[in-house]
Amino acid sequence: MKALTSVAILFMALFLAQCKSDKSGEQQLTPDEEKVYLEKGKAIAEATFTALSGKLTKAMEDGGVAGAVQYCNVAAMPLVDSLSKASNATIRRTSQKPRNPLDAPSEWETEILTSFQQMTAKGEKAMPRMKMLDNNKVAFAAPIILQPLCMKCHGTVGTDIAEADYTIIKKLYPKDEAVGYKPGELRGIWSIVFEK
After folding, report:
1. Mean pLDDT within 16-28
2. Most buried among 15, 159, 174, 192, by the most CB within 10 A?
3. 178 vs 57: CA distance, rounded Å
4. Domain ranges within the chain, ordered by starting residue
5. Is the pTM value of this prediction over 0.85?
6. Which of 129, 79, 108, 103 is closest to 188 using CA atoms?
């Protein structure tokens, strides 16, 4: 009986250690898992940014802000969807001030956005991070910092964004909130979710 009790205690200890939970009961990644997912997330975010920004820059050169906004409206989501399938992950860009309501943040994304905003407000650099969403999903988040070129679509209307261009933006995105930014500000996050 004593041996059976010892085996049961050992089994329970191994089971609890396997869960890798913190005190709140939230699942945690091991350091090795975190490193792997962090590197994968960074690589996917960089590849997605490169693909989007290259096509967006070309659209801007060919058709100005109207061409760029049209490109975003028609082709950006399908491009991100195809990269999601190729990466076996769900890739999103989200913000607390989305241009497209479909890009509004989830609860965990809002938590990360708020944290990144607090960091940048203090002059600290927001760094990519990982979060377990449940036992099977791992989330990667990285800041999107507004670049000077982005001001033509995300700056101040009437100063950075021509009124005629904003009319086009509002026509394609009637619920637009993604204006009023300054270069170097937090625009949003890359949100990448992996199946574990």
Report:
1. 48
2. 192
3. 19
4. 29-195
5. no
6. 103
